[in-house]
Amino acid sequence: MKKLAERFEQLAQMLAQFFSGLSVIVIALLGLILLVRIGLELKVLVGLSLKLDAANNFYLIMDKIVAFFILFEFFAMIISALKNKGHVSITLLMGLGLTALLRNLLIIHDDYLDIILNVVGILLLVVGMAIYRHYVHQDSDQ
After folding, report:
1. Predicted model pTM
2. Is the separation of the CB atoms in 98 and 125 below 8 Å?
3. Does the keyword Signal apply (predicted)?
4. Please, which residues have CB within 8 angstroms of residue 62's CB and are 6 or more apart in sequence?
């Protein structure tokens, strides 16, 4: 019975190492895909900015800028995950959520309930980040 438990433990360790290596490869591939997507987004953004009617496309340009930053934050999260063996800082995730809510706030123009809900979400995330940084994790996961 003891041998069976030891063999099971060995098998579990081998599978854990395999899946750990596989997750690093998948995260690296995702990083490459995001890097290509960031380049494409930047190309579209530059193209929109250089058009003569750029003033008429203000909201579209703002949307593209914020989308670029969201992709960039995802890329930063992937870099962080690769450096820390798959672990990602909660402040990075909260910043990503904050950027997504700000992007959504820029897109919404006429639905007041959605605007209020987004502002409340932003406020809660900012307060949560401040509490986390001050009381829980003081500057060590930057």
Report:
1. 0.67
2. yes
3. no
4. 106
